[in-house]
Structures are given as structure tokens and as C-alpha cells.
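Bug report (template v2)

What were you trying to do?
Predict the complex of my protein with S-adenosyl-L-homocysteine.

What happened?
Run completed; filing so the output is reviewed.

Input:
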Amino acid sequence: MSSLTPDLFASLYARCADASPALSSLALPDNAVHRLWTVCDLLIDNAKRFNLTAILEPEEIVRKHVADSLIPLALLRGNGIDPAACRTILDVGTGAGFPLLPWACALPESVALTGLDATAKKISHIRASAEAAGLSNVAAVQGRAEEAAREGMREHFDLVTARAVAALPVLCELCAPLVKVGGAFAALKSHAEDEIRDAAPAAAILGFDEASPIAYELPGGDARTLVVYRKTRPTPAKYPRRYAEITKQPLA
Ligand code: SAH
């Protein structure tokens, strides 16, 4: 067990909720705080071995992983997208499971969440975390987003999210093909104005409406932007291209 006890976790979480109206508005299931603690406990234990995160201090884990994952969930709801009403959610490049695992702790079991990552050891860690926390609504898949869009996940998800994976012009091409028409893509970003502008042509080509950015602050003051794209048209079959092409020549 790590130095993060359940009591310490609960008090750090309560402090974040006090500082964030969005976080405090989130109605969590009864066992969610204990599940969130379990996820963080295992993250600290496995972090060095699996190279999962540089953030190891308990207060920072709660702020930068848990609150940073859950505040967007509350903001989506306030902006007309209810993640609890989604049947399928995908987290692209989920890494150690963020925002995937906090979302799974906070959402009802009726929501099927999938985490996708290119790295096998991260997928193993997510499976172990989901099992330890008793999360039956989480699947973890090893693979690349641009390949998954050609292999059965195309236009499959009501909501796709991603945090810290790529700049928006690249990220839109990785994620748009995986979103159902009528669904949405929610990118978790810090400052995003330039990326949103640069990604506008790509978003339009890929079937998204114009971006709706929602600016907010993490407890402690770091600036964040939740960038929401609603998908209203199918993604043309030629996208996504191969990863080297996507990154060498982002759609413009
Ligand atoms: N979302 C997590 C991890 C960010 S690190 C967090 O915010 O903490 C970025 C992760 O994206 C890495 O684990 C990497 O393996 C994964 N990744 C990058 N490009 C990818 C792609 N094209 N398909 C799938 N996973 C990808």
C-alpha cells in the first residue's frame, strides 16, 4: 500500500471539491471515493515500475489526475452532453487510465467505458486497477487509435475523450473516426486557443461542427480548456490516414 491512505485521499478530494463548484456538483455513487482511492493507490505503487506518471505526491495526484479528470465530466453535463446517459465512451491514449478510471468510478455501470493505448504495460496496469477497484464497466484495449478506426471501432462511441495525447489537428483525425454521428469528442487541454484555430479545417473535413471550448481552472489555479466537438456528419472513408502522414501533414 502507498502512503496515500483512504482517509487522506478523502480529505484531499473534499478539499478539491470545496475549491471547484463543478467538482462539488458531481453526484458520485456511494462507493466512488473509495474506488478513486484504490485507483490512486495502485498508480503510486506501479508508477515507477511501469513508467506511468511523474506525479507521485498525494495532493498532486488528487488534483492533477482525479480532479483534472472529473471536472470535465461535470462540465460536459452542464453543456448538454450527459456522460451518464452515454452507452459507450472511449478514452484514446488513456496511459495509466486518465480520465478513463475516474470516469468509470463516477459513472453508472450502464456506461461501457473503453481505454485504448498503444503500450501493453499501460493496458495491464489499467486492467489491474479496474479489478482492484471492482470496476466491471471498464475494458482496456491495446492498439493505436488510427488502426482501431479501421478495425471495428469506427463510429462506435457516443463520446470519445483524450488527455495529453497530441495537438488538436492530429488528435481530431485520430478521434473523429471513432465517434458516432450524433456523438461528441471532448479533448482535455490546458491553453487551447491556437490549437483550436489550427484544427478548424481538420474538424470540418472529419465531420465535426465548430469547437465549443469551455475554460475553467483546476483547484490551485491551473488554466484548463475542455474542447467539445459534436459530430454531425460521417468521417470520409479515407480518414484516418497512416500515423506518419497525420503527423507530417495535419489536415488543413
Ligand atoms: N491520457 C493519459 C496519458 C497521456 S500520455 C493522461 O493524461 O495521463 C499519452 C498516451 O497516449 C501514451 O500512453 C501513449 O502510449 C498513447 N498514445 C499516443 N498516440 C497514440 C495512438 N495513436 N493510439 C493509441 N495510443 C496512443
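What did the reviewer find?
The chain has a mean pLDDT of 95. Residues 93-96, 98, 116-119, 122, 144-146, 163-165, 174, 243 surround S-adenosyl-L-homocysteine (CB under 6 Å).
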